[in-house]
Every structure is written in C-alpha cells, then in structure tokens.
Automatic annotation (TrEMBL), chains A, B:
Homodimer. It comes from Felis catus (Cat). It holds the Pfam family ThiF. Residues 13-323 form the Ubiquitin-like modifier-activating enzyme Atg7 N-terminal domain. It is found in: Cytoplasm; Preautophagosomal structure. This is Ubiquitin-like modifier-activating enzyme ATG7. The keyword Magnesium does not apply. The keyword Protein transport applies. Keywords: Autophagy, Cytoplasm, Protein transport, Transport, Ubl conjugation pathway. InterPro entries: Atg7, Atg7_N, Atg7_N_1, Atg7_N_2, ThiF/MoeB/HesA, ThiF_NAD_FAD-bd, Ubiquitin-activating_enz.
Length: 638, 638
C-alpha cells in the first residue's frame, strides 16, 4: 500500500499498486526482437500492456504484458484497458543497474503532467496510464532482469476520506446498478473500445449517466459541490482503489478543485462469475479535492515496483527452467549465429546457411568433423552415407563416436553419426544410410544379387544427391569420390571435397556446370570443364565457377582400386590428428563462403592476389581450394 | 589322416597331422612386434613352438605357439618338445593370399633333407621338427589370417605295417615299462632337456636302454635285422602315430635301410592322471624300412594344414570378440599412432607425446577441441578447469557436450568434459575441477569466506600446474590467463595459449624461463624475458625459447575486467564456427612439435624463413605462434 500523506483527522486514502505480470510470450518476443531487430540498439521502444477489472477476489491488480506488447496496433483484449509504456532494454547488466531510474520516472511524470495541464489527458485518458519497463535480457542463460514502473503523480497532500469506501450495492439501488451497467456498456460501444479507463458519472434515483472526461464542462454544469468520477479499477480490495486512480485524482484536483469541494469516486469493478455479471462489488467513496492551486512544476512522482522481497530493486525471471528444453536449445543455437550479424557481419545471410541440406559421403574422421562444424553453423539438415562399422580406434579421432559404439562389432557409422547429432541437438534433422558407393576399379560380382544391389546403390545415391543442396566428399579412397562427383555435376549440386595426407590436405569446391540453357551438353561427365573453355582462358585470369575443375580433372589415369594391396599404415588414414579437424572446419567454412556469394557455386575463384581488393562476400574470399601441399610446408602445420 | 601310398598287401601306416594351436598371447605378441619392431618388414622371422605327449585321450595333436614364440631363448615348457619355425608375416591380405606356399614348403623340405643327409639331424633332432607360419594381421579389426605348415618329407613308397600297432603294455612287461621310463628320464636329465623328441631303444626281458640318435653306430652295432626307435608322440590315437615320426622315418630309411630290414617304432606317450604316471598307453608297431637308395634330390613334401572346413585354405581368428573391449580400445588407439612411425615419421618419439600431462584451463569451445585433438594423439592424462555450467548453445560448438548435459541448469563443464573423455576412451585418465581462476581486475570481496576461497583457488591452481607438464590457456577472457601464465612461468612449465576472434585467432607457446642455475631471478614474473636479453638480440635473429615472450608481453596496460559492460555479442565468443576447431587443433600440433624438439620449450622459434632448411623436428617447424590476424586475410580463412 502506498500511502498519501495528509490530514490526520480523517482516514487517508491508500492505493493498491500494480503487480507487473510479464508473460513468457512477452520475454520470447523481446528475445526475438533483440536478436533480429534491436540488436545493439538501446533506444526506448513503445510497448503496450493492459489491465483487467474482473478478477476474482484475492488476485493482485496486475499490469499484463504479453507477446503482443510490441505491436502498438494490436487490439486490447476484451474488457481490458490499455496502458502505454516505454521499454528501456539495455545491452548489459551494468547498464541495467546503472540506469537513472529517478530521471526516467521524472521524465515520464513530466509527460503525464503536460497531458494533464494541456488537457490532452482529457481527450485521451490513456495518457494517464503510462508505464516504464527497464530490462536486461541475458539471452545466454535466459535470465531476464526487469524493473517495472507505473508513474503516479503525487498530490501535494494526502486525501482525507469523507465517506466510504463502501460497496456499490450499499450506495446504489439494484435499478441504479443496472442503469450504470447499461450506460457504461453503451458508452464503450459508442466509443468502440473494450473498456473505458476513466469516465464521468451523474445519477439520481432513476437515471444513471456516464460520459467521457473531455465532456466534463457540459456534464458537470448542473453539479454543485461534488462530482462523481468512475475509474476502471483493477484492484479487488474492499477498502482500497487500484493505482490508475492516482493520476485521475491529480487531473481532477488540477481541473476541478476550484469548482468542487469533493469528488466521489466509483471504482468500477466488473466481473462475470458462473455466467452472471456483477458490478455491485465495485466500491464508492468520497474524498476532499485538494483546493490548492498546483504550481506549474510537475509534482513529485512514485511508481517503481518493489521486488519479491519487498525492497526497491529489480526482479529476475529465469525462463530456462520453464521453457521446453528442446525449444530452448534451438533458440540458444540460433543466438550465437545471430550475434554474428549484430556487429561483425551485418550483411551475413544466415538463412542461406541454416536452410542448406548437406549430404556427407563418409562418416569417418572428416565426416564427423564436417558434421560438427555444420552444427556450429546451425545447419539443420544433415545426411550421412557410410558402409563401415565403428571400430575401437575411431572414437578418439572421429568426434561423433564413443567407446560403447564399438562393442559387439561396432554400430554402423552412418546410423550412429545421425543418432549422435540428435543427441547433441534435438532440433537437427539427421539421417544415416549404411550403404556402399559403387566405385570404378572395384568390380561388381556379376551374380544377380550383387549386381542388383549395385544398381540399387547407384539409384539411391542419385536420389540422395538430388534431394540435397551440397555434397561433401569425405571418403577414404580416391575412387569412391568419382561416381558422386559425376552425379552431383549432372545435377548441378555444389560439391565440397576434402582429402587428407599425413600433414597435407586439400579442401576444394568442384566447378559447377553451366545451367542447361547455356548449353553444356558437350561436357564429359567426370570433367566439368569443356576443353575449349580451358584453352580460351589465361592461366592467371580469375576463373569463374563454371570453369573450375573437379578432383579428377588432372588425372592422367582412370581411378582404380586403391584399397588392394595396402599395408596397415596405408589402410588407415595415417595423419596428424589435428589435420582432420582443420580440413573439416575449412571445408564447411568454404561452403558457407560459397553460399554467401551472390553467384553461389558459379562464383569466380578468389586467389590470394584478390586480398588487396574488397572481398566478394561478407565472409571474405571464395577460393577454389585451400590446401597445404608444398614440400617445404609439408611438415609445418604447427 | 594323411596316407602314405604303397604296398596293397599289408595295411599302411597313416599319420595324424598336427593341429595348430595359436594362443591369444601369440597374436598379442605378434601385434606388438608388428607395430613396434617389424612394421613394414616382411622378412621371415624365427619363432618357436612346442608339443606335448601327455594329453588326455580325444585331444588332437597340437603344435602350440604362445606369446613366448618370438623369444628363441625362452625355455620350452616342462615335458614338452620344441619345434622351430619360420614366420612369414605379410603386410597385406593380398600378399598373404599370393604367397607361394609350394615354394615355401619346398624350401623348408630342402633344409630338412640337408639336415638328414649331412647328419646334422642326428646331432640335433629338433631340425626334423620344422614348421612354417604364414600370417596376415589385420590390426584394424583384430582379424588374424594364418596358414600353418609342418613340413614332412615323403618316403618314396608307403610303409607296410609288419606288426601292430599295439599298446606298449601288450609288448612290454611292467618291469620293462618301468625300466623304459627310468632310462628315458635319465637321458633327459643327462641332456638337460624337458623331453627328447627322438631316441634309440634297445631292450631284452631285463634291461631297457635308450640313447641319442647321434650314437646310433655304437648303439645298434649288435642289432641284426631290426632296430627300435622312440618318438615323442603328441598323438593320442591307438592306431596311429603323430606327425613328428614322418621325418624320423625318412632319416631312418636314409641312414639305416641298407643295414636293417625293418624298424620297430615306439610312440612314446607319457601322461600323468590323478597323480599317477602312465606310459603304458604308448603304442608300438613295426614297419618295413624301404630298402631303396634315395636319390640325392629332396623328396616331395607335404604339410600345409587344412582349414576348419577341411579344405586347403587359410584360417582366420577374430580376436576382437574375445578381447577385453577396453584393452582392445587401447591397442587400437595406439595402433593409429604407431603407424605414423612406420613410414612417414620413423623418428617420431611417441612416448614424449603419450606420456605428457596436460592441464586445460577452460573447457569451452577451445578446451573441448584441444581435448579431442590430444585424445587423437594418444595423450592419456588430461585435466580440465572451468567454473561454468553447460548451456543450451554449447553442444553444437563444444564437442564434448550433448543436449542432456544442459538440462536442469547444466552440468559443470569441467566435470562433464572429463566424464565424456572416459566415455570416448576408457583408457584416458581425465579429471575435472569446477573452480574459478582468480583474475586481476576482478576484485575479491574481502569477506573472510570469499577471500579464503580465492586463496584456496590460487593454491589449487598452483598444485595443478605443478603436477602437469603442459598448461593450455583456453579461457574466454584475457585476464584469466594472467595468473596461470605467471605460475606456469615460475614453475617452468610449457604454456600453449589459444585465443579466438571472429575470423582471427592466435595460437602461441609462451617462452620458457632459463633453468635456475643460469640465473633468471631477475625476470619479472609476468613477463618472461629480461629486458637486457631483448635489447641484445636482433629483431630478425632466430629467438631461443627462453627469450620468447608470453601473451602479456606487449601489453601496455595491466589486464583488467573485460567481462564488465559487455553486450550480448561480446559476452559470447562470436566466432566463425570452424575457427575453434582449427585453433584447437593447431594448439595441440604446436605442443607436439615442441615436445619433439630436443630442446623442448627452449627450442629456437622457427620462422617461415626456415622453410628452406632442414626442419628442426621430425614434425617440422616449431614456431612461436601461428596466427591469422592480418587485415586482408581477416575474412579469408575459407
């Protein structure tokens, strides 16, 4: 209870303050706007809340903000009154703490005072229902710090109660009550509003009239010493009005205290219980109107909400506890990505990355690391193809597997990798196919069974490539890359290829065939560049994406079976353990850079000479390949 | 049963072949030798097996190879006869399949034939007990392919049985049996061997004499048409001798067929059941000695073992199924590492890497990736320090965490990271400490509780640094790196520092203070280089490890609280997702390179100019730092 000070002879009128009711939807929408719209902008924002006067007894008077709070044109819910607020959302907890709350309150009070003095509040009483909301959203933890203020101008003295408060049914006859109800409803309907926050009342035994504040001149002209005003009252207490009355009384004192000695206040409370409407529990009381002339200066104001402990301090809500954890994970993953766009790369088109469908051929050392990096970029659609099972040496180098996956002969890699991605981030759409990729040089046994299987494998591979946007070649043999490279070329899919040596690697994008209308039917299927095109271009010119070669373009022999006759160290990809992480990460970063280029896979290959020019994408150069192959660099990756 | 062909009038003598009994210990030892010693060497290796003549009835005659098979000086087990073999371990399954088994058998037969002709076999009868073992060890899958051969020279014709076989108790009186037993034991003792594979026997009703083959001249001089020879017989069958008799009969025919018409064979079988020794179940038979003179050419030989299906083919044993999975995981992890030493980096000192104890300060994006790379290098001792809990945005970028780890406020990162390493590889010794690192600029509240806690944290940090070899600085603030850098410098521990920007990073080693005896007391604790040292050296000279700076060496202001007043995008390390993997991997590769340098942390910093010279370690250059900071390279990591 906030007490107005004053005359000790009569009991003083005290007001029940608002309790802020900030819905989860509000915080969710704030999060979205912060991430996508406000970013680092700390400028005040208009928001909108509402309050209700039909609550059951016992509930506190609440000012509610929902997800709709940010849409100033959103309709106010039925039977509710709007309140217009200002959001001060700070970038840091320090700024939140350091905010000058006294100043903010004074500024808001000034605006109310101006509206009172100018008469604007009579025209538009919602101007009396201002609120402030100071927030800091810790979106890493989903902790929301906030401090709510409903600025109330203070009268120069306390208001002695002349009469009441009593229930409306003790003052009005049932007939009068019914007449008030009808008059109020009619006015709302005429005005086209769900509720009237403030209104004027005139009544005798037979008639009850209500009117808008702005009509006070005509309405009150036959009144003598006392006027009656109505306030839409969110409070339930029998002895106390709610907070919205405060600024109305200041208005009344300012406007009418020279003409009237007292004001009768009807705190209009309007609830429907079990289908029966009831306004009879509204309360009525009479207070002396302070006669004194106000100084032109804005009166003192109060209104910062107390916190749960009853002290002056902010509140914090931890939404991580009540949000669906999977939903929470999705928002959190998005967060890190969106933060890139705030300051560092404002032009980054994240949607192009997040929505890309990636097919990973190979779920070994490279496949696992590529998948991990894709997850970091927020890619939601990842499909693995592999035909191996997880062996005991895998988990320490293949970061999607664990010891348990190796038991009983080992789980199929493709399936286990997809499962693991779901465990890491339930929002991902991951699938795995335990299948072989037909390879040149690896003869198919021409029994009907194996031949049929090989046919099915080719068909399935074609379908998979067709239904994805980017194909990653991450296998451990050269020749297994051939068929997917050919199929992807024919379907004009972006191919990213990564291959490891011991301390060397290559990461490259394959060239992309020209679109069909440009006539590209004369390209050989494995080699994407028409010889004539190559001859026509200087070796040193920047090469457009459709002239870039593929992994096999420099081959002088056809790919053959490289798995035959391999010694143990040739069977395993013996490589410096850090290399797969580097190559895997670079492969994904290369894909992201290509996707950011307006020409996508047709982007001209950037060379290191281009470094003096403006980079072609917000993420920099889009080279043909990134490799570490030079002899003198061979052993120098560290 | 292998049948000798010949005279259809009498029943023919048939021999029970050996069954190879290759113990798990044998394969384990082969694995070790292959990895550590043979590597790519396919040269034949001497190995040793043994056989036993005391088995219970029903067991096949086995030639057993245990872990000791590779140690030619290892003692033969009690009551067993040795067999000397040659191991042909191929590098590939193709070489295994392509091995010329006919040629290998012929070569072994030749050696036996030479030993027979020269008389060497008389001096050393073990020369008759040769065997071959052709193997291919697929150490990725723990599948061992093998083909065993016990070369037996063939007599030009089959051996007709003149008498028997009968049990020894049907031929000898109990007194004779006892006398044989004693004579055999005495001879073994005189010779100092656990058993005699072949021996000569002479007996009458009262006396039984045995002698060595080489004494045949004296021993047989009073014999007329028949001699008796004893063979230590691994076979249990009542009607058939075991395989070792075959080469002895060839020797007998070659040596003695001109003097004697037949030979009586005593297949000496010597078992102890329930404490009672029994040789009475030995068998005795007489065969005609082929009279013909042998040609000087080596006779035809047989001996390749049939496989489980009864055909001529190799066997395979899948040891992954019967090995302890955790042990298997350890061997498998070692395998990939050891393969590096086979061909690519023979001088790599893996022990220096595997045994290093690493302290990871920070278990976030960098910490997780560093730990993963350390695991790939086989590092077994990894300790995490972090004070944060896992949040929902972490798992997609921090590859030791999953969605489940985020629930209920999130597990402490340090503990969860250590747990995850154990799940990846049970052989790792991983620990985690959920603690804060005191930081300059972050004032400690001087209440006794928090002050005491800060003191404890410093003490604990000191202990941790003391008990590790390498300290990784992987935190997300600059100032948290300060105290560990100072402590590690004072304790002369190698410090590897990694820090990320958006598309920039730095990975560096801190300089290492000179050892105490060289007088380094005048260095300031945070800055490792004495100013005089710096002034004395040219900027372009190669800088020795003790003159290298630390992360703070170029600071012009003291580190302060960089976490205050940070906006959301400054709180999170907003970085290209691939970057942490690259920097984490490079940090570990840098550590490995430093460890490989003979001077360790005192190694002169390699610069790119050094690339024309021989690299200082088997893994290449050992730079001071690896960074990606230049403006024009800023956005070009892809």
């Amino acid at each position: 209870m906030a007490a107005a000070t004053g005359d000790p002879g009569l009991s003083k009128l005290q007001f029940a303050p608002f309790s802020s009711a900030l819905d989860v939807g509000f915080w969710h929408e704030l999060t979205q706007r912060k991430l996508n719209e406000y970013r680092l902008d700390e400028a005040p924002k208009d928001i909108k809340g509402y309050y209700y006067n039909g609550d059951s007894a016992g509930l506190p008077a609440r000012l509610t903000l929902e997800f709709s709070a940010f849409d100033m044109s959103a309709p106010t819910p039925a039977h509710c009154c709007p309140a217009i607020g200002t959001l001060f959302n700070t970038n840091t907890l320090e700024a939140f703490k350091a905010a000058d709350k006294k100043l903010l309150l004074e500024q808001a009070a000034d605006e109310i005072w101006e509206a009172v003095k100018s008469g604007a509040a009579l025209e538009n009483p919602v101007l009396l229902n201002k609120f402030l909301l100071l927030t800091f959203a810790d979106l890493k933890k989903y902790h929301f710090y906030y401090w709510f203020c409903f600025p109330a101008l203070c009268l120069p003295e306390s208001l002695p109660l002349i009469q009441g408060p009593v229930g409306l049914d003790q003052r009005f006859s049932p007939k009068q009550i019914q007449a008030l109800e009808r008059a109020y409803d009619d006015l709302c309907q005429t005005e086209g509003v769900p509720a009237l926050p403030y209104f004027l009342i005139k009544y005798d035994e037979n008639v009850v009239l209500v009117s808008l504040l702005k009509h006070y001149g005509d309405f009150f002209q036959d009144q003598r010493t006392k006027i009656t005003i109505g306030v839409y009252d969110p409070c339930n207490l029998a002895q106390h009005p709610g907070w919205p009355l405060r600024n109305l009384l200041v208005l009344a004192a300012h406007r009418w205290s020279s003409s009237f000695q007292s004001v009768e206040v009807l705190c209009f409370r309007d609830r429907t219980m079990q289908g029966v409407r009831d306004i009879a529990h509204s309360i009525v009381f009479e207070v002396k109107l302070p006669e004194m002339a106000f100084s032109p200066d804005c009166p003192k104001a109060v209104g910062w909400e107390k916190n749960q402990k009853g002290g002056m301090g902010p509140r914090m809500v931890n939404l991580s506890e009540c949000m669906d954890p999977k939903r929470l994970a999705e928002s959190s993953v998005d967060l890190n990505l969106k933060l890139m766009c705030w300051r560092l790369v404002p032009t980054l088109d994240l949607d192009k990355v997040v929505s890309v469908k990636c097919l990973l051929l190979g779920a070994g050392t490279l496949g696992c690391n590529v998948a991990r990096t894709l997850m970091g970029w927020g890619v939601r659609h990842i499909t693995f193809v592999d035909n191996a099972n997880i062996s005991y040496s895998n988990p320490v180098r293949q970061p999607l597997y664990e010891f348990e996956d190796c038991l009983a002969g080992g789980k199929p890699k493709a399936l286990a990798a997809a499962e693991r991605l779901q465990k890491i981030f339930p929002g991902v759409h991951a699938r795995g196919f335990n299948m072989s990729i037909p390879m040149p040089g690896h003869p198919v046994n021409f029994s009907s069974v194996t031949l049929e299987q090989a046919r099915k494998d080719v068909e399935h591979l074609e379908q998979l490539i067709e239904s994805h946007d980017v194909v990653f070649l991450l296998m451990d043999t050269r020749e297994s890359r051939w068929l997917p490279a050919v199929i992807a070329a024919s379907k004009r899919k972006l191919v990213i290829n990564a291959a490891l040596g011991f301390d060397t690697f290559v990461v490259m994008r394959h060239g992309l065939k020209k679109p069909k209308q440009q006539g590209a039917g004369d390209l050989c299927p494995g080699h994407l560049v028409a010889p004539a095109d190559l001859l026509g271009s200087s070796l040193f010119a920047n090469i457009p994406g459709y002239k870039l070669g593929c992994y096999f373009c420099n081959d002088v022999v056809a790919p053959g079976d490289s798995t035959r006759d391999r010694t143990l160290d040739q069977q395993c990809t013996v490589s410096r353990p850090g290399l797969a992480m580097i190559a895997g990460a670079l492969a994904v970063e290369l894909m992201v850079s290509v996707l950011q280029h307006p020409d996508g896979g047709y982007a001209i290959a950037s060379s290191s000479d281009d470094r003096m020019n403006e980079p072609p994408t917000s993420l920099g150069l889009v080279p043909h390949q990134k490799k570490n192959l030079k002899y003198h660099e061979r052993r120098s990756i560290a």
